[in-house]
Amino acid sequence: MNLKDQYDRPLRDLRISVTDRCNFRCPYCMPAEIFGERYQFLPKPQLLTFEEIVRLTRIIVRLGAVKIRLTGGEPLLRQDIEDLVAMLAAIDGVDDLAMTTNAYLLPQKLDALKAAGLKRLTISLDTLDDEIFRRMNGGRSGVDKVLAGIEAAEVAGYTPLKINAVVQRGVNDHTLVDLARFFKERDHILRFIEYMDVGNKNGWKMDEVLPSAEIVERIHAELPLEPVAGNYFGEVARRYRYADGGGEIGLISSVTQPFCGSCTRMRLSPEGRIFTCLFATEGTDLRDPLRAGASDDDIEAIIRATWGARIDRYSEIRSSLTDEVRDRRKKVEMYHIGG
Ligand code: SAM
Ligand code: SF4
Ligand code: SF4
Fold first, then answer.
1. Which H or E run contains 63?
2. Which of 173, 211, 227, 294 is paired with 28 by a 20 to 30 Å CA distance?
């Protein structure tokens, strides 16, 4: 208990990436020219089984995690994902069980997910402009598919939804006010995410980042906003509410206003490594010890040592790194650990 890292940050959230596969090819995450037909994704025997995921989660919950989020890749591509949801929902001490999805397969999966005990949903949608959206998912989906997923989620009672929109200057930034208006009318919480230099495959450049302050300015000019005070420790989004009382938005400003000081997240990859930062260069393998017969106490000791040694604060040091140093740093990919 009371597990803290080197900067006194507790372990509160666990993000579980259940697959490295995805049915989209968002250029900022899995560019199609790299993740083509012949790309070798993890073979099934290398993936953690549901039983293994649940066993690790139990241990991580014992160490303080109370919020769990399923992600990927695209989590709905993992076969029988609802069975995993049901198994995780049964763990004592889990306050929140959520999923982030591109929603393409959501309509056919929702009833099963709800019955299994999934509490909250975050759906990613970067723009309402169909042409731009297709460009932003590698031509895999129109906006209509995601809206159908959103509608199904509304009908199933997952309201308000969180909607994630990655903002790329020169790509979708001129469509943000439309997106805000659309979700304001539907009472969902839209969260703008600054385009991040996760991994090494998306060709990230600082000049493609639209700072959150500018996003707020642009929305505020059309739909007046005021800041919401008193965010809880560990909350990554800065919140603003509409001055007319009609809902709120969030800003995830990993690049321009880092929040490493309150980062309480651990990430578990599909093949069983834990990562203590989204921009980590290495993970700590738990699968081999697990499959070699380690006890829960042995695994707990590895996790304790990993979190206890944690000194990650990449977003706070990013601006002090030269492009060259940044490019040389071999980081884990977003599709692998799920954001
Ligand atoms: N496939 C699911 C989805 O897209 O919702 C879940 C996994 S995805 C990696 C999780 C979130 O990360 C999505 O909301 C996505 O937009 C965001 N994301 C991916 N690459 C990003 C990047 N380079 N910068 C900022 N956000 C990114
Ligand atoms: Fe797939 Fe999500 Fe990455 Fe897009 S952001 S490629 S939907 S994992
Ligand atoms: Fe957490 Fe790493 Fe992001 Fe900082 S850069 S907020 S430590 S994940």
1. none
2. 227
73 lines ligand 2 (CB under 6 A): yes
The whole-model pTM stands at 0.96
Q: Contact at 8 Å (CB) between 29 and 281? A: no
Distance between CA atoms of residues 334 and 32, nearest Å: 14
DSSP element (H, E) containing 24: none
Query: Encoding tokens for residue 329?
Result: 């740093």
Q: What band does 324 get if pLDDT is binned at 50, 70 and 90? A: confident
Sheet of 265-268: strand order equals: 225-227, 238-242, 248-252, 189-194, 162-167, 120-124, 96-101, 67-71, 13-17, 265-268, 273-275, 284-285
Q: Please report, for the chain, the start and end positions of each structural domain, with discontinuous segments joined by +.
A: 13-337
CA-to-CA distance for 73 and 71, rounded, in angstroms? Answer: 7
Question: Residue 202 class from Cβ within 10 Å (0-12 exposed, 13-18 middle, 19+ buried)?
Answer: buried
CA of residue 263 to ligand 3 center, whole Å: 6
Regarding the beta carbon of 314 and ligand 1, being less than 6 Å apart is answered: no
Q: Where do the DSSP E strands lie in the chain?
A: 13-17, 67-71, 96-101, 120-124, 162-167, 189-194, 225-227, 238-242, 248-252, 265-268, 273-275, 284-285
pLDDT at 74 over 80: yes
Secondary structure of residue 217 in the 3-state scheme: helix
> Confidence band (pLDDT; 50, 70, 90) for 230?
low
Does any ligand 2 atom lie closer than 6 A to the CB of residue 26? yes
β-strand partners of 121: 99
Section 131-152 average pLDDT: 98
Say yes or no to pLDDT of 1 above 70: no
What pairing do the DSSP bridges indicate for beta strands 96-101 and 67-71?
parallel
User: Domain 13-337 adopts which CATH fold?
Assistant: TIM Barrel (3.20.20)
Q: Is 320 exposed, middle or buried (0-12, 13-18, 19+ CB in 10 A)?
A: exposed
